[in-house]
Write a structure and sequence with these properties.
With 411 residues, the protein is mainly beta. 11% of the residues lie in helices and 40% in strands. The strands form five sheets. Strands 1, 2, 3, 4, 5, 6, 7 and 8 form an eight-stranded antiparallel sheet that branches. The longest helix is centred in the first third of the chain and has 16 residues.
Length: 411
C-alpha cells in the first residue's frame, strides 16, 4: 500500500502529497475572490519522517500495533495585497505556516479472522509563525499595530480551508499481519505499508484445543465503601452502572441492576475464551465501570491486570480492584495544587482456567548431581501432544507483526 506518492491510472498523485497540493489550489482559488485582502499560498517544504511500527497506549481497552507515517508541511504565504480604493496594493508581507499530518494504518478486527486495513488521518491546525519583516514592522508601528493584526486575521480566514480534522476510512483489503518498508526517511519517496492475510493451516484436535485456550469466567462484582475526606459517598448512594470486561480481544458488556455499598452482584456470564498467547505475550484483563451507560460512553473508572506464562496466565481465582477518584481542591494557604485521590470502589472476581500450561513438579527431593538438570513433568492434558515450529514459521523480519504485537508467522 503506497501512501505518500500514490498515483492513479492517469499518473496523478492521489497520495498525501497530491491531497496537499489539491487543497492548496483550492485555498488560492478562494483567496483570489476576497474583497479586502488577497494572498497566495504555496508548499515550501514537504518532509516525510519515515514509517514506524507503534502501538496504541489505552488503559481501558485492547491495544493494537499500527504503522504511523508523520509529515511536516511548510507553507509560504506571499503576494499579500490590500484593496485601497479599488486598487490592489502590494504590502510586502510574507508569512510561514507549518502543519503536522499523521497517517496511521491499522489491521482492524484482525482478531476476528476477518481483518481489514483501516486508514486513520490526524491533521493539526496550521501554525502561523510570527516572522514580520523590517518594513512591515515600521509601517505597523505608525498604524498602532493594526496592519499586522488585520492582515493576519484575513490570511487566517483564507487558509481556513486547509483540513484540520481526524478521519477514519476502512479499506477493502483483508489482513491479519502488518508491517512497513521505510525506504529512505530523508526523501519524499513512498513509504510502503506491507500487509498480508495468512489463513491458519493448524489442524485442530481436542488435545490442541484444550492446550490453546484460556477461559475467563466472571463470577461477581462487589461494590465497596468509597468515601471522600468529608465522608460523602462516591459517586452516588445507589448506582446503576454498566460493566465492561476485556480478556485480550474478547469483550463482555452488561448494564447492571442498582447496587449500593456492600452489595455483591452475581454475574453468571458465559466465560470469555481466548487463545493461549505466544511464549512472550500476556493475558490482559481490563475491567471498566461505566456510570453513564449510553452507547459510546467512555469508562468512568478502569483497572487492568496482566498475567504471563510464568504465572500460568493467572490460573485460579483472581480479584481485580477498580478505584474511583475525587478531586481535592488547591489550597492557596499552603500552595498545594489540586489533586486526584483514588479510593477502592469495586471488586471484580474472576476465575481463570488455563489448562494447557506446563508444570515443573520435581520427581523427588533428592539432591541432583552437579552439572545436571532435573526434568520437569508435563501436565497430564498435554502428554503426547507435540507442536513443532520449523524455519517456515520463524519471524525473521521484526518489522512485520500481528497487530496485537505478536510476531507474524505461518503456522
Amino acid at each position: 500500500l503506497l501512501i505518500t506518492n500514490l498515483r492513479d491510472g492517469a499518473g496523478n498523485n492521489v497520495g498525501v502529497r497530491g491531497q496537499v497540493d489539491k487543497t492548496i489550489a483550492a485555498v488560492n482559488a478562494n483567496a483570489a475572490q476576497q474583497p479586502s485582502v488577497r494572498a497566495k499560498v504555496r508548499v515550501e517544504s514537504f518532509t516525510v519522517f519515515g514509517a514506524q511500527m507503534s502501538a496504541t497506549t489505552y488503559t481501558d481497552r485492547p491495544n493494537h500495533r499500527h504503522v504511523g507515517i508523520p509529515y511536516m508541511v511548510g507553507y509560504k504565504v506571499y503576494d499579500v495585497r490590500k484593496n485601497v480604493g479599488g486598487s490592489w496594493v502590494a504590502t510586502g508581507v510574507t508569512r510561514n505556516l507549518s502543519q503536522s499530518i499523521t497517517i496511521k494504518i491499522f489491521c482492524d478486527r484482525w482478531e476476528t479472522g476477518n481483518g481489514l486495513l483501516k486508514l486513520v488521518t490526524a491533521i493539526d491546525r496550521p501554525y502561523m509563525e510570527p516572522n514580520q519583516g523590517t518594513i512591515e514592522q515600521i509601517v505597523d508601528f505608525f498604524l498602532n499595530g493594526h496592519l499586522t493584526n488585520f492582515i493576519d486575521n484575513q490570511v487566517r480566514q483564507q487558509i481556513s480551508s486547509i483540513p484540520i480534522m481526524n478521519t477514519s476510512t476502512n479499506l477493502q483489503f483483508a489482513c491479519n499481519t502488518l508491517g512497513r518498508n521505510q525506504i529512505d526517511p530523508a526523501t519524499t519517496k513512498d513509504d510502503v505499508i506491507v500487509y498480508s492475510d495468512h489463513q491458519s493451516r493448524t489442524v485442530a484436535t481436542a488435545a490442541t484445543a484444550a492446550l490453546n485456550r484460556i477461559d475467563v469466567k466472571l463470577i461477581s462484582l462487589k461494590r465497596l465503601v468509597a468515601r471522600d475526606l468529608r465522608g460523602a459517598v462516591l459517586y452516588q448512594p445507589t448506582e446503576t452502572p454498566a460493566l465492561e470486561v476485556y480478556a485480550n480481544t474478547q469483550v463482555f458488556y452488561r448494564p447492571l441492576s442498582a447496587i449500593q455499598e456492600g452489595q455483591e452482584i452475581a454475574l453468571n456470564a458465559q466465560p470469555l475464551t481466548v487463545r493461549t498467547p505466544g511464549s512472550n505475550e500476556p493475558l490482559v484483563l481490563v475491567a471498566n465501570i461505566i456510570q453513564n451507560v449510553a452507547v459510546g460512553t467512555q469508562p468512568t473508572d478502569s483497572a487492568f491486570a496482566v498475567f504471563g506464562p510464568t504465572t500460568n496466565y493467572g490460573n485460579g481465582t483472581r480479584t481485580i480492584r477498580i478505584q474511583k477518584f475525587y478531586t481535592v481542591p488547591a489550597d492557596p494557604r499552603t500552595g498545594a495544587k489540586p489533586r486526584l485521590v483514588p479510593v477502592d470502589a469495586y471488586d471484580l472476581i474472576v476465575q481463570i482456567v488455563s489448562a494447557g500450561n506446563l508444570t515443573t513438579t520435581l520427581e523427588s527431593a533428592t539432591p541432583q548431581t552437579p552439572g545436571t538438570v532435573q526434568p520437569g513433568l508435563l501436565n497430564q492434558g498435554v502428554q503426547g501432544t507435540i507442536r513443532k515450529r520449523g524455519l517456515e514459521g520463524d519471524p525473521s523480519d521484526p518489522s512485520t507483526v500481528h497487530p496485537s504485537g505478536a510476531s507474524a508467522e505461518t503456522k
